[in-house]
Structures are given as structure tokens and as C-alpha cells.
């Protein structure tokens, strides 16, 4: 007797290597081309490390963010740069935090 398996007709799969997509791979290769183009501006001893840095920096920015799901590091960095500093203000640290936990309200 033959078994049949139900197969979903709406399959959406991204072509990717571990955590980077194929497009990200082309971007990294393109960053090597940009590094090769600009290597004449760098001291000859540092030309190879410059090109390696370009590829590694591009890889880092294209890597998925650990803090924000479904976003890449360059997207998170762009949000941090573009945020309105008047809206998102850091809170002042609480003084005598231990006394607040214990419930001592009269301690200054």
C-alpha cells in the first residue's frame, strides 16, 4: 500500500549559505572590487589588509543582527544613526538601588 504525503503549494525559500544569502555573497565580492579600486589610496604595505578589512567589514554588516530578528547589522546601525535623539532619552540611573529593592523609602 502506497502512502501519500501532503505537500504545500506555497513554498518560499531563500537561497542562502548558513546565515548569508547569495546576494550577500555578491555584495562581499563587490566590496572586494571596491577595495581593489581604492587600494591605490593606501600605503603599499597595508593594501592587502585594507582589502581584507573591506571584505570582513562588509560581511559583518551583512550578517543577521543578534538583537533584532529579521534585520541585518547595517539596518540596525542605520536605525541607531537616524534615531531622533530628542525622543529617545536615556534614563538617569537610580541612586541607592538596593534600598529601593528592600523597601526603604526614607533613605536618600
Describe, in plain words, how this protein is organized in 3D.
- Helix 1 (22-38) packs antiparallel against helix 2 (47-62).
- The protein has a domain at 17-90.
- It is mainly α and 108 residues long.
- It contains four helices and two strands; from the N terminus they run E-E-H-H-H-H.
- The model has no long low-confidence stretch (mean pLDDT 79).
- The radius of gyration is 25 Å and the shape is flat.
Quick recap:
The chain has 108 residues and is mainly alpha-helical. It is built from four helices and two strands. It has helices at residues 22-38, 47-62, 73-82, 97-102; strands at residues 16-17, 20-21.
Tell me the Rg in angstroms.
Answer: 25 Å
Helix content: 40-55%
Structural class: mainly alpha
Per DSSP, the total helix count is 4
Average pLDDT for all residues: 79
Chain oligomer state: single chain
What is the straight-line distance between the termini? 80 Å
Give start-end ranges of low-pLDDT stretches: none
- Number of strand segments: 2
SSE topology string:
EEHHHH
Strand content: under 5%
Largest sheet: 2 strands, antiparallel
Strand order of the largest sheet: 1-2
Shape: flat
Amino acid at each position: 500500500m502506497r502512502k501519500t504525503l501532503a505537500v504545500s503549494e506555497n513554498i518560499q525559500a531563500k537561497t542562502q549559505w548558513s546565515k548569508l544569502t547569495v546576494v550577500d555573497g555578491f555584495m562581499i565580492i563587490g566590496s572586494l572590487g571596491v577595495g581593489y579600486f581604492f587600494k591605490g589610496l593606501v600605503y603599499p604595505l597595508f593594501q592587502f589588509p585594507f582589502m581584507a578589512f573591506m571584505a570582513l567589514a562588509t560581511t559583518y554588516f551583512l550578517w543577521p543582527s543578534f538583537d533584532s530578528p529579521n534585520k541585518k547589522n547595517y539596518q540596525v546601525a542605520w536605525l541607531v544613526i537616524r534615531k531622533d535623539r530628542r525622543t529617545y532619552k536615556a534614563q538617569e540611573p537610580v541612586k541607592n538601588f538596593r534600598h529601593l529593592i528592600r523597601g526603604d523609602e526614607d533613605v536618600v
